[in-house]
Write a structure and sequence with these properties.
By secondary structure, this protein is mainly alpha-helical. It folds into 3 domains: about 1-70, no CATH class; about 80-210, no CATH class; about 220-275. The chain is built from 13 helices and 5 strands. The protein has helices at about 15-20, 35-40, 75-110, 110-115, 120-125, 130-145, 150-155, 160-180, 185-195, 200-210, 235-250, 260-270, 270-275; strands at about 1-5, 50-55, 60-65, 220, 230. Strand 4 and strand 5 form a beta hairpin. The protein starts with a strand and ends with a helix.
Amino acid sequence: MKIEQLSLENHFEQSIFAEEGFEKSNPENFASSAETEKFCSGGGKVAVDKLEFKHSDTEISLMNMKTTRDDLSYLRSDMIHNRLLQLSGEERKITAELIEYLAEVDSRKIYAELGYGSMFSYVTQALKYSEGSAYRRIEAARLFQKIPVIKQKIESGSLNLTQLSQVRGAIKRSEKENSKKISTEETSDILESLENLSKKESEKELAEKFNLPPIEFTRTTAKKGGSFDIQFSLTEEQMKLIEKTKNHFSHAVPTLDIKDPIIYFCERNEKDIRSLS
């Protein structure tokens, strides 16, 4: 059986069908009536991700058609979803390969040969990643050098770069505070325990595994227009107390923003504060 793959852009040429003896209007040549309807609408405009039709001993598969932004409106919802699944899988595969290459650059100090003072400079300046993205990829690459199996974990989606950088950070912190090296076997076990967990779940798991106390800090940053960014850490008990308070006063503070209960109580007690001053 002869199989041909045609990559087409906006319209199908009538000559293609004439050559093979196909009639565009004949539904029997198409895999389904739904696909026929999609294909025939819009004057034969490309509207499907994959369309198959048969004629005698010839099967022609029209796939991976190039589409413009407007063309996406012709696609069924399940086709868009399936294409996104395919693209996300390809993205994970590319990310895993990139981590492998970064590990080689790091271990051989290729970045220095190219005139960069550090891996971070190379990844941000040569590869054009943001600071946060560069940090996560470098940490993952250094973990890969010890545990190559993480490449498959990234490809499958069971582990992501955020989790890998979390593991590296927890290991460095634990080794510094406890003056004890974490073995490759221990690290492998930890990575396995984090598979398919969220960022918050991974943080909790790592804190328990390494017996790490919360990092307590408060950081205030002035912003344009007289506003401020405030960052601070809370224990698990403190966070539960805030959540409980938010829920109790939800009638007065109908928002999920953590700052609003604080503002609410400050405003309620403003008179008492003034009387004390």
